[in-house]
Amino acid sequence: MEIFRLSTDDVDKHRVELELMLRQVYSESFPDTEIYDGLYSERIEALKAYMSEDRAIVYGAREGSHLVGFIWIFESDGFDGKTIHINYIVVQSGSRGYGIGRRLLDEVENHAERRGIRQIELLVTCSNERAVGVFKRQGFGVERFMMKKRIS
Fold first, then answer.
1. 81 to 67, 120, 135, 145: CA distances (angstroms)
2. Closest CA to 80 of 110, 120, 132
3. How far apart are the first and last CA of the chain?
4. Do 127 and 32 touch, CB atoms closer than 8 A?
5. Topology classification of domain 2-137
6. Residue 26 burial (CB < 10 Å; 0-12/13-18/19+)?
7. How many Å apart are CA 70 and CA 15, to the nearest integer?
8. pTM (2 d.p.)
9. pLDDT category, 124, cuts 50, 70, 90?
């Protein structure tokens, strides 16, 4: 398995795999929400635009010619310094349990160190216990809660 940085051409080449993984992560994170089919394609187009503007970086995990995971990040400036925000991290369900997610996170941590960035953040759905466990084992902790009220 190889970790590599995706180009916009790679995004086009692996578009079907990326859309399937986005569908997977949305269904796991928002199981009771109906997501319209066009969302996944829109997210890929937005990613390509961000990448072409140097506002997003994507690392992928490749098994042979197949993309089995990816992590989409961007840098932001906050009151406490530069931060890397993980927008998405997804490993195909059939490829989980082999350390792919950990290797993608390690690559982002190496990227942060090369850039002199001292913190990485992400949002995770609290009901996604598997993901929460992965992030905790990688040293992430809870700093804030995002609270939501649904109005009928």
1. 33, 11, 22, 20
2. 120
3. 47
4. no
5. Aminopeptidase (3.40.630)
6. middle
7. 12
8. 0.89
9. confident
Residues 42-57 as b/e (b if ≥16 CB within 10 A, e otherwise) read ebbeebbebbeeeebb
Determine the pLDDT at residue 114. Answer: 94
Q: What is the CA radius of gyration of the chain?
A: 15
**If DSSP codes are grouped into helix, strand and coil, which group holds residue 1?**
coil
The Cα 18–Cα 22 span in angstroms is 6
Helix (H, G, I), strand (E, B) or coil at 135: helix
Q: What is the pLDDT of residue 31?
A: 80
Which residue's entry shows tokens 């995002």? 146
CA–CA gap between residue 33 and residue 59 (Å, rounded) = 28
Q: Return the sign of the alpha-carbon dihedral for residues 27, 30, 35, 37.
A: negative
The residue ranges of DSSP E strands in the chain, in sequence order, are 2-5, 57-63, 66-78, 81-91, 120-122
Q: What distance lies between CA 48 and its chain's CA centroid?
A: 14
Inter-CA distances, 59 with 35, 43, 93, 149, Å: 25, 16, 18, 34
Q: Do 91 and 68 form a contact (C-beta atoms < 8 A)?
A: yes
